[in-house]
Design goal:
The complex is a heterodimer.
Chain A lengths: L1 E6 L7 H16 L3 E6 L13 H4 L11 H9 L3 E9 L2 E2 L1 H8 L5 E8 L3 E6 L7 E7 L6 H17 L4 E6 L4 H9 L2
Parallel strand pairs in A: 1-2, 1-3, 3-7, 7-8
Antiparallel strand pairs in A: 3-4, 5-6
Helix pairs in contact in A: 1-6
Chain B lengths: L1 E6 L8 H13 L6 E6 L6 H10 L2 E7 L7 H9 L11 E7 L9 H13 L4 E7 L10 H21 L4 H8 L6 H12 L5 H9 L20
Parallel strand pairs in B: 1-2, 1-3, 3-4, 4-5
The chains are: A alpha/beta, B alpha/beta.
Chain lengths: 185, 227
């Protein structure tokens, strides 16, 4: 599979987190996957201002020529996207959420009923959208309720993005376990 | 009652969130002696200053539009900057307003759970969360249709200004529809067939001379990565 890892670690001093992703990437490469880690904190990403320009002015592209264009290109052409970030205040870091907001050019403004039940935007590309996984680092006060809330929100995000959430894992388990999980997809 | 309002719309002052807040605050000011301060998160350049404003407030309302079924990125940045305040015991009370484009309130229920937990994390008394869907569409709605929504925000603000609480009956009424009813789904499918549902977007696409490009796929790669 072609795998994109969105590294949402906001803190360059948190070497442990970056190393975990590097080890995971190495492990996946040795299983013949193609991986690419995008270090979001070092990229130039203007937050989404909700202008809808990517739907109504330059369809499919953000009107700001920032690194989110490269992220969209990588994501839509991959088979699997791992969203990875430390939790901050009970939710993945802001740098990851800012990048997630900038994926809406991959959708159309048009609205459809998913499962003839609820409103969502239609997909822009005909291809199968990448599956997603979530990898988080706990905070000192993280409890099972936090994990449940974050998991449920990412499941909703997956519906928005014509995908499904394959797993939520924490960085307190061996890298091999996450890599096995991805291999089982 | 002294209130500090954080408007979390990435569109800033020219936003649907601003319009809803105006009605809420009009109601809030009906109680004599009430006053408020309004801050736009999008204009915030100074993290230390915003922490000070939060810490010094008695009561806070944080309002934002739903982005990918959650808070917008800039609102998450704002929340992350509050981390040093978690250890304080005397943080202000906090209530939230979440508005979305899709008509169903259900889309906002997940972030609502996060916000309640966030209040707990910050040792803030949790006032509640006002949820309203279908707000993007108010831009093209006739006055008589939006009047009802705006009046509910006014009433919620008025009750909050008096009691410091969100009226649960008003919250439930405003949130409707929680899900699309069978009839609404039927109308939707019917409307889609005749191009009524998406006319809002098509008109803007045509105005922007972008209608022919509406299905553009700029990032597609011809060669598959699969080996």
């Amino acid at each position: 599979m072609k795998i994109i890892i969105l590294n949402g670690n906001p803190d360059a001093d948190n070497i442990k987190f970056d190393n975990y992703l590097r080890d995971l990437s190495d492990s996946l490469e040795s299983d013949n996957h193609t991986t690419n880690i995008l270090k979001l904190r070092e990229m130039n990403i203007k937050y989404c201002i909700g202008c809808f320009g990517c739907w109504l002015k330059t369809p499919g592209q953000c009107i700001f020529k920032d690194d989110s264009q490269a992220i969209c290109r990588e994501v839509i052409n991959s088979d699997f996207v791992l969203f990875a970030a430390p939790l901050v205040m009970g939710f993945p870091s802001a740098v990851l959420k800012i990048a997630m907001d900038k994926l809406i050019p991959l959708l159309l403004p048009y609205i459809e009923l998913v499962n003839n039940k609820e409103c969502h935007h239609e997909k822009r590309y005909d291809k199968k959208y990448p599956l997603i996984g979530l990898l988080i680092e706990r905070e000192d006060d993280t409890d099972s309720e936090d994990i449940k809330i974050v998991s449920d929100i990412f499941s909703r995000f997956a519906i928005d993005f014509k995908s499904s959430l394959c797993f939520v894992k924490e960085t307190n388990i061996p890298v091999q376990e996450v890599s096995d999980e991805i291999n089982s997809i | 009652m002294k209130l500090t309002v954080f408007n979390g719309s990435p569109r800033g002052k020219r936003s649907n969130t601003t319009i809803l807040l105006e009605h809420f605050l009009k109601g809030f000011m009906e109680t004599e002696g009430n006053s408020y301060k309004l801050k736009y998160i999008v204009n915030n350049k100074n993290e230390k200053k915003i922490i000070e404003i939060f810490k010094d407030a008695n009561n806070i309302i944080l309002a934002f539009p739903l982005y990918t079924d959650c808070m917008p990125g800039i609102v998450k940045s704002f929340i992350d900057s509050l981390k040093p305040l978690c250890k304080n015991k005397d943080n202000p009370s906090i209530g939230f307003i979440v508005q979305s484009g899709f008509p169903e309130a259900y889309h906002s229920r997940f972030v609502e759970r996060y916000l309640e937990k966030l209040a707990k994390r910050l040792n803030c008394q949790y006032i509640g969360c006002i949820v309203k869907g279908g707000i993007e569409g108010t831009r093209m709605m006739p006055h008589f249709m939006t009047k009802k929504i705006f009046n509910s925000f006014y009433e919620l603000g008025k009750a909050y200004g008096k009691s410091g609480k969100f009226d649960q009956t008003l919250l439930n009424r405003l949130a409707k529809p929680e899900h699309l009813s069978a009839l609404m789904r039927l109308f939707y499918n019917f409307g889609r067939l005749f191009g009524i549902v998406n006319a809002y977007w098509d008109k803007q696409l045509k105005d922007n001379d972008a209608f022919e490009k509406r299905f553009d796929k700029p990032y597609i790669m011809i060669n598959s990565f699969r080996e």
